[in-house]
Specification:
By secondary structure, the protein is mainly alpha-helical. The protein has a domain of 128 residues. 69% of the residues lie in helices and 5% in strands.
């Protein structure tokens, strides 16, 4: 069976999941199961089929499992958000369509994605400018102490979601040219790269990290840092780089926790979520504590779909349930079993991404796929780890599931780039 036929078959259960999910919502709301869930499922399948046709025509050898996996995640997100707020679900559905358009345009316009290497410094400069934009007076928007979004008339988006793609492209391109130069000098048996080779890399990456600290986007900082270390290790095959990087990360985390009040508050809330003073304090531990209560209430099998207590009147029981705490809602309603199932879908997506990186023959493609996949994996870890109190809670979205237009569009662009790499790698492997 061809790759595209396997992909087509894989889209069917994803659409059936949407039908079942909306059916469960309607039964819970009115105890009546109409045919509206079938309509939503058919529309969802139709949109996925359009993306499938683009891949069938343009990338016939691309990985056949990535699009169905993404469809499952997006379907879960649409159903859960609809269960929380019908208006937000309609907005999310619109962004899903826009994301598919961005996905299609990326595939059609980038006939050879390796052309991005030529513009690496332009892409890096544009990415850093994007990170700076939320602090520009008049267009920057502050939410919960962080400068994440910009507002230009009716347009509102989070530029860090798109900047991460540009930084990954720059790192992949630069490391492709300097990977051997970074390891050609040793002192006392330790790899010590020359400043002229690692300097530009550290400059661009350091400016990106500085901008993230400037806008107080802790979640994106972790993703950028982790992606950088993963790509550096793949490029050089030297453990010294991630080891030193993790040490510097620990030092930086300690420094900012004692010097930046916003970071210190997040860490204190993480360490003592049930402290009565922190629980009642504005911007304290209420959000993480309620998240833990909701997950514990879900148990093994969950309270049942639509049974999570999200708010009482106008008072939220789970703040930002459609974004930061959507994983807690899923655990509460579907239990530990449902949560594990969702995480396994993410594991499959990450596995396919790294498989694409392994199959790629040229260094740029391999590093690009590694960086993009690592960013997705770390984004899932950061939000799930924060919601479950493994790490301090930060304001990032659960890819394709949480409400957020910028996130879903940017992640569709990432998927398109991965499939571009996959098509070339699999085609070359057949020769």
């Amino acid at each position: 069976m061809s790759a595209r036929n396997r992909e087509l078959i894989g889209l069917i259960p994803a659409s059936l999941l949407v039908v079942a999910g909306f059916g469960a919502v309607f039964v819970q709301e009115s105890a009546v199961l109409g045919d509206l869930s079938l309509t939503y499922g058919a529309v969802f399948l139709g949109l996925c089929l359009l993306a499938h046709l683009v891949l069938r025509i343009r990338l016939p050898d691309a990985d056949p499992y990535v699009l169905p996996i993404v469809a499952v995640l997006a379907g879960v997100g649409l159903v859960v958000i609809y269960r929380l707020n019908e208006t937000l679900a309609r907005d999310q559905a619109t962004w899903f369509v826009i994301g598919l358009i961005a996905f299609t345009l990326t595939i059609l316009l980038l006939r050879d994605y390796r052309v991005l290497e030529r513009y690496r410094y332009v892409i890096a400069a544009a990415s850093i400018l994007l990170l700076l934009m939320p602090r520009i007076p008049g267009i920057g928007a502050q939410v919960n102490g962080a400068y994440l979004g910009i507002e230009i008339g009716p347009v509102n988006f989070q530029p860090a979601e798109f900047a991460k793609i540009g930084i990954i492209i720059f790192l992949a391109s630069y490391l492709r040219d300097t990977r051997s130069l970074l390891v050609d000098r040793k002192k006392f048996g330790i790899t010590v790269p020359r400043l002229k080779h690692i300097g530009p890399l550290l400059l661009v990456w350091g400016l990106a990290m500085l901008m993230l600290v400037f806008i107080r986007d802790l979640g994106s900082s972790v993703m950028f840092f982790g992606g950088f270390l993963a790509m550096l290790y793949v490029a050089t095959n030297r453990l010294i780089f991630p080891a030193v990087g993790l040490g510097l990360f620990a030092l930086g985390a300690w420094f900012f926790s004692v010097t930046v009040g916003h970071v210190g508050d997040r860490i204190e809330a993480w360490q003592h979520p049930f402290d009565p003073k922190l629980y009642e304090q504005v911007g304290g531990s209420y959000q993480i504590a309620q998240s833990l209560f909701a997950q514990a209430d879900g148990g093994m099998w969950g309270q049942g779909f639509g049974q999570a207590l999200v708010q009482v009147g106008d008072s939220p029981i789970l703040p930002a349930a459609q974004t930061d705490l959507i994983y807690a809602v899923i655990v509460n309603e579907l239990g530990l079993v449902g949560a594990i199932a969702l995480l396994l879908v993410y594991v499959l997506l990450v596995e396919r991404g790294f498989r694409i990186a392994v199959l790629a023959r040229d260094s740029f493609s391999k590093l690009l796929a590694t960086g993009l996949t690592t960013v997705i994996a770390l984004q899932v870890f950061v939000i799930v780890g924060g919601v479950t109190k493994v790490i301090p809670l930060t304001g990032v979205t659960l890819p394709f599931v949480s409400y957020g237009g910028s996130s879903i569009v940017a992640n569709f662009v990432i998927v398109a780039l991965l499939l571009l790499v996959s098509d070339r790698a699999r085609r070359e492997a057949r020769r």
